[in-house]
Predict the structure.
Amino acid sequence: HVQLVESGGGSVQAGGSLRLSCAASGYTYSSYCMGWFRQAPGKEREGVARIDIDGTIANYGDSVKGRFAISRNYAKTTSYLQMNDLKPEDTAMYYCAATSRFGAWNLPHTYRYWGQGTQVTVS
């Protein structure tokens, strides 16, 4: 069955860095775009970044451009989100997602598979 398992979250001080990982299994990883979303308490789920099937095109939300970088490793079927210069407003649960559909990259309903999330707290 399909699994997306996030890891790498934690607590960090403002200005620090974290790297999130998303290990995928149970589907054809190379046929899916990979995305990262986040959701803070009381807020809607927000698109953070997306990388295309080929790993050549990345999209970012305005609030993270220049600070976050998405990447993927086909051999390990794992996607990553490198987060630098973290700010308190980055505090949220971060989710990995996968899609083979066309659609707006930053909308949750574009994605078919979801992980359970990993918490990031910036103080």
Remarks:
- The chain has a mean pLDDT of 97.
- The longest strand covers residues 18-25.
